[in-house]
Every structure is written in structure tokens, then in C-alpha cells.
């Protein structure tokens, strides 16, 4: 996982998996979107496609390769972003 300085912003297909409330807000459990290279770019694109995700994404954890990541991290080829809202209970 790397960060990007803004020099290479080409669109690329990125797969997202939505869990629980994120899945309900998106209306799908998984999809592939064309987005810029960073996690932030991908999340912004997902919200543009599914406006109901806006509030959910604001509180979600985003996992890449099983690790929580920030918006500046670059999503590589064949990687999947997992969008997990906070879970209640235990």
C-alpha cells in the first residue's frame, strides 16, 4: 500500500464490497467502479453513484488486504476495498 502525490490520477476499475448498513445504502453487496487511484477517490465515486452512502461512508472503516486504510492510500490492481460500517452488539 502506497500513497500518491497527485501526479498519476488515471481512472481504473476498483472492486468494492459493502457490508451491513453500507450494503443497504448502496443497494448492492459488491460492485466495480471506475475511479481514481486512492481510497478517497474510490469512496467519492461510490458516493456519487449511491448518494445514500454519504453518511455511512463518513463513519465506515475501509479495509484493503485486511488492513484499515486512510483515504490517501493507493488501491492497486486486483485489490478489493471492503466498506464496513460500525457494528452494534458483540
UniProtKB/TrEMBL annotation:
InterPro entries noted in UniProt: Beta-grasp_dom_sf, Mopterin_synth/thiamin_S_b, ThiS/MoaD-like
Superkingdom classification of source: Bacteria
Pfam families documented for this protein: ThiS (PF02597)
Protein's name in the database: Thiamine biosynthesis protein ThiS
Amino acid at each position: 500500500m502506497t500513497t500518491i502525490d497527485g501526479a498519476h490520477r488515471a481512472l481504473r476499475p476498483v472492486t468494492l464490497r459493502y457490508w451491513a448498513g453500507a450494503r443497504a445504502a448502496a443497494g448492492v453487496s459488491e460492485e466495480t467502479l471506475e475511479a481514481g487511484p486512492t481510497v478517497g477517490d474510490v469512496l467519492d465515486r461510490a458516493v456519487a453513484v449511491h448518494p445514500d452512502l454519504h453518511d455511512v461512508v463518513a463513519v465506515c472503516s475501509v479495509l484493503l488486504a485486511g488492513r484499515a486504510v486512510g483515504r490517501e492510500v493507493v488501491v492497486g490492481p486486483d485489490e478489493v476495498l471492503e466498506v464496513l460500517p460500525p457494528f452494534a452488539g458483540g
